[in-house]
Amino acid sequence: MPHAGTLHINHLHKQYEVKGRALPVLEDISLTIAPGEFVSIVGASGCGKSTLLRLIAGLEDDYRGEIHVDGQRIVGTSLQRGIVFQEHRLFPWLTVAQNVSLALLNRNLSHTDKRRTVQSHIELVGLTGFENAFPHQLSGGMSQRVAIARALVTRPDILLLDEPFGALDAMTRAHLQQELRRIWQAEGITMILVTHDVEEAVFLGDRVVVMEPRPGRIRRFLPVDLPHPRDRASTAFARVRDGVLREFAEQRDSVHIADSREVLSH
């Protein structure tokens, strides 16, 4: 049955201490994501995309502002917020089925129910027949499928994806983007994708959040009003993609102007 969470971020600020000095990483981030929505977050390196995802996951808690899921403040990690990283992080000594079932260790389920749940999620990511394979016997794309199955097997309300296809070749990446779209539609959950790939962001997202750096903040929200499945070669797709790319061009121009003013002032 479809299940999803509502994420509400209000005036979020985050900084790190570097050599005794405060380094602002995120500044005044406010964002609401509706149940079942797929939001893509793009931005140059250093704009705090991955830090934002880690805060939503509950991997860090030193921040100012509010992060709530379904009205509850995030405190620590939770199985209701699954996360997939760029590296699959599978345990090499465990099989595919064992890696996926690991997320269910603390669930009060019978052995039969666990086995059935694991099998259904292996089927969901298209790996039927590989249940007893070990990670070294899988391709990079297959390993990421296992990581996605492991993140989904607990039936989370929100799935967080941090550059999940960044290390894959172009053909595998395009195929897994299609698979992720299928899984999202089948599961009906909220998904948040961090990516450097503008085309990927537009292909998958209901909205694209464009961030800018120094410190990281939201520059623009861009809706993607295109039906699924999306045609990357269509004029409508190109129009949305180019609109996102223009934001980056304007961002670079504004940074260059600011840098020039700073040099002149000195």
TrEMBL record:
Does Nuclease show up as a keyword for this record? no
Question: Which EC number applies?
Answer: 3.6.3.-
Q: Which Gene3D superfamilies match?
A: P-loop containing nucleotide triphosphate hydrolases
Which keywords does UniProt give here?
A: ATP-binding, Cell inner membrane, Cell membrane, Hydrolase, Membrane, Nucleotide-binding, Transport
| A Pfam family hit | ABC_tran
List, in alphabetical order, the Gene Ontology terms for molecular function in this entry. Answer: ATP binding; hydrolase activity
Q: Where is the ABC transporter domain?
A: 7-238
Q: What EC class does the entry list?
A: hydrolase
Q: Which family does it belong to?
A: Belongs to the ABC transporter superfamily.
The identity of this protein, by name, is: Aliphatic sulfonates import ATP-binding protein SsuB
